[in-house]
Q: What sequence folds into this?
């Protein structure tokens, strides 16, 4: 699933930003609910907790996407190294020069 999200263009930085945004949104929803709804403190707490629970999911997905990005980078470096080695094998060397 993570590799599919990565291929679709989702990056770890986006998930980290979403995690931070959800923390801010949790505080904002708690504040708005507490001050502008007649339901009271309990409902405001529930809203804040509900939205705040998204942050760990976003951060976890960010970590998983970062691992995927590192894996992709390592594969690319390995392919470059193999290409360099193959070119070196094909290039004749001059003995005794």
A:
């Amino acid at each position: 699933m993570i590799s599919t999200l990565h291929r679709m263009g989702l990056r770890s930085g986006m998930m980290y930003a979403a995690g931070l945004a959800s923390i801010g949104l949790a505080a904002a929803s708690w504040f708005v609910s507490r001050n502008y709804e007649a339901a009271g403190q309990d409902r405001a707490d529930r809203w804040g907790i509900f939205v705040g629970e998204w942050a760990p999911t976003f951060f976890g997905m960010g970590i998983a996407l970062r691992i995927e990005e590192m894996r992709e980078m390592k594969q690319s470096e390995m392919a470059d190294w193999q290409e360099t080695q193959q070119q070196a094998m094909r290039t004749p060397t001059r003995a005794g020069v």
Observations:
- The chain has a mean pLDDT of 85.
